[in-house]
């Protein structure tokens, strides 16, 4: 899709944050688009994957974080992560961001 044709969807929070699944789907779509462009002889710049979240991942995300790191290390994609402080449970004991870098998605990518 051309950026000029983009129309932002209305986003609604529903309590589920399948971060791992979303990242895996995005990385797959990026690779498919790159393959199509390459097959057509069209050059492209390194894609950007921008993840925006208002909560804690509700699925297995660790392998997706590793896939992001590997894709960035191979110069296949640039990954940006943004989380909303308003919704991330900052300051609550046991919250996602207080669990340490081993389980903290934000620090994993």
Low-confidence stretches: 86-104
The coarse silhouette is globular
Could you give the order of strands across the largest sheet?
1-2
Strand runs, count: 2
Order of helices and strands: HEHEH
Helix vs. strand class = alpha+beta
Question: Can you characterise this structure?
Answer:
- 12% of the residues are buried.
- With 109 residues, the protein is α+β, with helices and mostly antiparallel strands.
- The longest helix is centred in the N-terminal third of the chain and has 21 residues, at 19-39.
- The chain is built from three helices and two strands.
- The two termini are 26 Å apart.
- Helix 1 packs parallel to helix 2.
Task: Kindly summarize this structure in a few lines.
This protein is of the alpha+beta class and 109 residues long. The chain is built from three helices and two strands, in the order αβαβα.
Indicate the topology:
Layout: H1 19-39, E1 48-53, H2 62-73, E2 78-83, H3 105-108
Parallel strand pairs: 1-2
Helix pairs in contact: 1-2
Task: Please name the defining characteristics of this protein.
34% helix, alpha+beta, 11% strand, 109 residues, two-stranded parallel sheet
């Amino acid at each position: 899709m051309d950026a000029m044709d983009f129309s932002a969807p209305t986003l609604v929070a529903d309590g589920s944050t399948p971060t791992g699944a979303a990242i895996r789907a995005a990385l797959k779509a990026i690779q498919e688009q790159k393959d199509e462009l390459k097959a057509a002889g069209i050059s492209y710049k390194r894609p950007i994957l921008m993840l925006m979240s208002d909560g804690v991942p509700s699925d297995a995300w660790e392998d997706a974080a590793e896939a992001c790191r590997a894709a960035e290390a191979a110069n296949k994609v640039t990954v940006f992560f943004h989380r909303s402080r308003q919704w991330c449970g900052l300051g609550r004991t046991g919250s996602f961001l207080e669990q340490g870098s081993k389980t903290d998605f934000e620090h994993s990518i």
